[in-house]
Amino acid sequence: MKKTVTCPLCHQDYEIYANPAPTVDVIIHDPQRGVVIIERGHEPLGFALPGGFIDDGEQAEAAARREMREETGLDVELTGLLGVYSAPWRDPRRHTMSTVFVGRTAHPEALRAGDDAARAAWHPLDALPAPLCFDHGIILEHFREVLAGRRALAPVQPDAPTRPHSGTTGGTTA
């Protein structure tokens, strides 16, 4: 959405775009342990899937792995893409658009809370803590559909290669 604002210093009008902020969430599932849920240490308080904002210049897959390391101490392999969730109400702080990944970890015992997670724990899907923040209840219901064979995961894209510095601009040669 484009809107016009006035600079309070120079009083000139200019246009800004109020776009959704890109985020990631990650469902780490272990058949014996359940899913990783964090207890948020900052507003909005409650329980949530690990995740967070994608940094400028960062690929979504890299952000998902980074957020997992920061909030749970787990190194993860992303195994599928559950979907993109963009309801304007999903985050009370601002409009976000979350890419939700599914993954696994080779070391589930390494789980620990970090960064803005006050706690991190494994929870069976049929005994999740409440309240779940954002739209994470809906997301986890969609994940249950994956486990039941009623919904499919999309493949995760490989990390993008580093852009070559070939001395060309705009796809043309010098």
From TrEMBL:
Residues 154-174 are annotated as: Disordered. GO terms for molecular function: hydrolase activity. PROSITE patterns: NUDIX, NUDIX_BOX. CDD domains: NUDIX_NadM_like (cd18873). The keyword Hydrolase applies. Keywords: Hydrolase. Residues 19-147 form the Nudix hydrolase domain. InterPro entries: Nudix_hydrolase (IPR020476), NUDIX_hydrolase-like_dom_sf (IPR015797), NUDIX_hydrolase_CS (IPR020084), NUDIX_hydrolase_dom (IPR000086). Signal peptide: none annotated. The keyword Ubl conjugation does not apply. Belongs to the Nudix hydrolase family. This is NUDIX hydrolase. It comes from Candidatus Desulfovibrio intestinavium.
